[in-house]
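REVIEWER CHECKLIST
Item 1: Sequence provided? yes
Item 2: Single chain? yes
Item 3: Sequence as submitted:
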Amino acid sequence: VDPFRDSPADMKEYTTSFHPDFFGVTGEPQVLKKLSEELQLYYMFMNMSTKKPFDTVLKRPETEAYHVMHSSSVLLTNPEGKLVARLSAPFDVAKTTDTLQKIIDYYAKK
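Item 4: Structure as written out by the authors:
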């Protein structure tokens, strides 16, 4: 969720390191902000020196010394690209595995 530092290639490298079918998104700041609001996801830029958030995610922070603080949800889509589940931290391996398997089985039968 950092349109100022994350290129599509960076996102692909990062997400596919978890699994080759995973993907992330990046884009113009206004588009990412709208998408995050629609998906009820949260992010902000935090100044590493002052430990305070910047006022907006719509413009590049004045310093390179910043972190992106964000929610840690995993969004699952069906083969048509529709959101079907949101998995949120803390992640329990057994429950997460069970949920994922149920979703996979459901769509495998279709």
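Item 5: Key structural point noted by reviewer: The longest strand covers residues 43-47.
Item 6: Recommendation: ____
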